[in-house]
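Q: What structure does this chain adopt?
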Amino acid sequence: MALLPLAASCSVSLIAPYDSRSEEMVTQIQSELSAFHQELIYDNKAPDCVYSKHVGFYRTIHADIANLRVRVSAIAKNAQTGDQVEALEAGVDDLEQIHRNRERQPPGDTQCMGIKAMENSFGGLEGIIRAILQLEMVKQRTL
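A:
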């Protein structure tokens, strides 16, 4: 009978606890992506739009995502968030490949990513980031 009160006070968590630093890092990545998206829209003329002019952005965003990946992987029971960060990384890789491929087009504005391609790429990235943030909010409320 003495074990009953002890068992009632224990709970099992199947997911990592809320991590405010991870949420801040994801929000910072979203801010960087949004600013880059706007830059590409407003500078959508060659040569400003070409990949080689934006390598620094890709270098920075990849480093920021790598830092986030390390952080979320260091937290126990955080595989779901880790999977989402991997999806984010793959999405940025895809965006970079599209951008790089456009630069190989004949000189001129055809080297720029089209608005529709940008909307699809950035929309997908925003969806992944939204999912990561929603998961962190659920963790904050329930744990």
